[in-house]
Specification:
The chain has 753 residues and is mainly β. It is built from nine helices and 43 strands.
């Protein structure tokens, strides 16, 4: 029924939702004289951002915001939205499989970051502390722009926004100023050699004076990824497991050890957008997004071996990941502004489905655990101008997560099925309510103050009784209520047009979700994670100081220094049940019991430096560098490295633009993380890393030389060509389970009508 409803709405849907900045962008285009939408987007992104949920000048806000406009998206020509984020140079991407990509911002990852699309929060009750791949559900072919807040922003975005916020805004068809009607369409295709990728995209838009429509479809397919040939041989795929016709698992030699068997997958993305503006005071925005993959092999589990050098798993894959979003936003901008200047009401429904499927080497039983999550949300945001120099923003948010979780084991030799433990308690739920207020004031000439606070209450309910049929837990029902009050203050000082200083002090939090509190799964072979009903919210205190300079010869420099103290942090550690058990049988193996516990205190700090140097009208040098460190403070003075701290990383670009040609030659690099600086949890996963001279795992340094070009033959036809990793470097980004592509040719062609 959900699929039928989606198909109906996709082709016949009417009215309502999307992102604030795009709505305002439409106003700007409608009222202005520019016809070049891409140019206008770029212009606006340099001046206006919507990180506060309402458009405001980027110079006046105290947060550091990284923007990616449509022109940058087209030049980058990324395979996934995760790859697009990586092009900023401010975001590190970890991958456990080809069909994935977990962003890391300032040492925080996954459920300590917020992802939103068109103003709708994607974080849900089963976002995990490990690596996730939900961001690939957003097709880069549908994006208008991206805004990334670096650093905590829990006041506006609530739980999880400790490390940053990633706001994705999709394309919206424009309204016309006259009574004419217009139809536009785009056809795109792309091929990349390293994974034999084939992508096809089509969208069509209808525009009139009061209503506009846009529909798009994107189909992608990826083969097994080829790694580079020059680097640590530890990464090579020398052999792999196949299953014969009689059901026997056999280890075979890989004919090409640089081909990462098995990594191939396919993905489909659909989008429908409708924008309706009956008058200047009222706007309706409606959007439908649907994404589906086929089975995605988890490569890092397929390369694990035991003490006898035998593969542990013959199969380990994520089942089809399905995501449906229906969002709806009403914007009211009244003539009489006594009560409010702008009111936005947003509602959304999401359904997310995923599964984990595994079979151990030589065994017949395929274990499958399936999750289906329904999410309802309501957001009300209000802007009220107090006077010409100050305003107040306030609002409320309600979110309800309802989860179904199932588990079964299938005997492939005879087709018999049986029940197994579920990953999460079936029919569990998580509700949250939040209210915030944010105040902005121009204290003195060119000095802006931002301050705000937020209160959030969450209620989690889970019934563990069905898993007690498999495990001797001492608890059956969990009902956890948590609340958090956070606040922040920031200053933005516009010393002059060429110098800006920004200072922020913020508190942030993350409430335990169902994944934290109630899941049962094998975190690694020999370890099993069990529920801990005593969890409390994580909390953080953050400081940030940054500045922007523009010299007399137009060199632009910016830097940010930051420090975050995370306390009450949840980390995985050995756990003893009330009945004294320290080990249990999980999927046939005796496993050490572990649980998440609020026992971590850590300090994370770093420095970000960027430069843009226009050498001439056509030639620009651009670079971004990130230095970061983080340590667990539990065992002072013998502090241990924090798990999600990436190596120092950055890029260096030489950009040439002239006429119809755009050219970007660049270097990406990562520094080494030696064994002594690896987190303990990473040392235990030696199969992910190369071995140093002492036989210990480490993450080697690497760099790649790359080239991107884009050429416009006409206003309607353009093509892009990229050559990545010139030297065919063999490398694996930190904490990743899959090696990066070797030398990779990418070609794309776009036709706009």
């Amino acid at each position: 029924m959900k699929i039928l409803l989606f198909l109906f709405l996709f082709f016949f849907g009417i009215n309502l939702s999307q992102a604030t900045n795009i709505v305002n962008l439409q106003d700007s285009i409608t009222k202005g004289n520019k016809n070049d939408v891409s140019y206008l987007v770029e212009e606006l992104e340099e001046v206006l951002v919507s990180t506060s949920k309402f458009l405001e000048s980027s110079r006046e806000i105290s947060k550091k915001v990284v923007s990616i406009n449509q022109n940058a998206v087209e030049l980058a020509n990324p395979k996934t939205s995760a790859d697009l984020l990586e092009t900023t140079g401010n975001i590190f991407i970890q991958k456990s499989q080809l069909g994935g990509g977990s962003p890391i911002i300032r040492g925080f990852s996954t459920n300590r970051l917020v992802i939103s699309i068109d103003g709708v929060r994607l974080n849900n009750a089963i976002y995990r502390g490990g690596n996730i791949h939900n961001v690939i559900s957003i097709s880069p072919m549908t994006l208008q722009n991206i805004e990334v807040i670096l650093g905590s922003e829990s006041v506006l975005y609530g739980s999880d926004a400790i490390g940053g916020v990633m706001n994705f805004y999709t394309k919206t068809p424009l309204l016309l100023k006259t009574s004419n009607k217009k139809i536009n369409s785009n056809i795109s295709s792309r091929y990349s050699s390293a994974a034999s990728e084939k992508m096809y995209h089509f969208d069509i838009a209808y525009s009139s004076k009061k209503i506009s429509f846009l529909s798009s479809i994107t189909q992608s397919s990826f083969g097994d990824l080829r790694m580079g040939g020059n680097g640590p041989t530890d990464y090579l795929r020398e052999n792999y497991v196949v299953t014969s016709l009689d059901g026997e698992d056999v280890v075979v030699e890989n004919s090409d050890s640089k081909i990462q068997k098995f990594t191939a997958y396919k993905q489909l993305n659909l989008m429908k957008k409708i924008f309706y503006q009956p008058n200047e005071n009222l706007k309706f925005d409606f959007g439908i997004h649907f994404s589906k993959t086929n089975n995605i092999p988890r490569y890092d589990r397929l390369i694990i071996d035991d003490e006898n050098d035998s593969f542990i798993f013959s199969e380990w894959y994520y089942g089809p990941q399905k995501w449906l979003l229906i969002n709806n936003q009403i914007t009211i901008d009244p003539n009489n502004k006594k009560i409010f200047d702008v009111l936005k009401i947003g509602t959304s429904f999401q359904n997310f489905e995923e599964s984990r499927n595994s079979r151990k080497f030589g065994e017949n039983n395929l274990n499958s655990r399936v999750e289906s999550l329904d999410i309802l949300s309501l957001n009300i945001d209000i802007l009220k101008k107090i006077n010409y120099k100050s305003n107040i923003k306030y609002g409320v948010e309600f979110i309800h997560n309802g989860l179904e979780s199932k588990g079964k084991s299938s005997d492939l030799s005879n087709g018999l099925e049986g029940l197994i433990s579920t990953r999460y308690p079936n029919n569990s739920s998580l509700k949250s309510f939040g209210a915030y207020v944010n105040f902005k004031d121009k204290i003195i000439q060119d000095l802006f103050l931002h301050t705000g606070m937020r209160f959030t209450f969450s209620n989690l309910k889970a019934d563990l009784s069905q898993n007690n049929d498999f495990f001797d837990f001492t608890f059956e029902n969990i009902s956890l209520r948590n609340s958090a009050l956070v606040g922040g203050v920031g200053l933005s000082w516009l010393r002059n047009n060429n110098n800006i200083w920004k200072l922020n002090i913020n508190t942030a939090f993350r409430s335990p979700n169902i994944d934290d509190l109630a899941k049962v799964f094998d975190s690694a072979p020999g370890n099993v994670l069990v529920p801990n009903p005593e969890l409390e919210p994580e909390r953080s205190l953050g400081f940030e100081l940054g500045s922007y300079f523009k010299t007399s010869n137009n060199i632009e420099l910016d830097f940010s220094s930051y420090l975050t103290y995370l306390y009450n942090g949840m980390i995985r550690a050995d756990f003893v049940l009330e009945n004294g058990l320290t080990e249990i049988i999980y999927d046939g193996s005796l496993s050490q019991i572990q649980a998440l516990q609020n026992s971590s205190r850590s300090l994370i700090y770093g420095l970000e430096f960027g430069m843009k140097w226009p050498l001439s009208q056509n030639l620009i040098l651009k670079t971004q560098h990130n230095i970061i460190a983080g340590y667990e403070l539990n065992e002072l003075p013998f502090s241990l490295p924090v798990r999600h701290i990436p190596p120092n990383y950055g890029n260096f670009h030489v950009i040439f633009k002239k006429g119809k040609l755009n050219l970007d030659a660049f270097i990406n690099y990562n520094s080494e993380i030696p064994f002594k600086d690896l987190a303990e949890s990473e040392r235990a996963k030696a199969y992910l890393y190369a071995l140093d001279n002492n036989g210990n795992p480490h993450s080697p340094s690497w760099y790649t030389v790359n080239l991107r070009t884009k050429y416009s033959f006409t206003e309607k036809i353009n093509c892009s060509f990229s050559f990545e990793n010139f030297s065919d470097k063999l490398y694996r980004p930190y904490s990743s389970g899959i090696s990066a592509p070797g030398s990779n040719f990418i070609f794309s062609l776009n036709y706009a009508y």
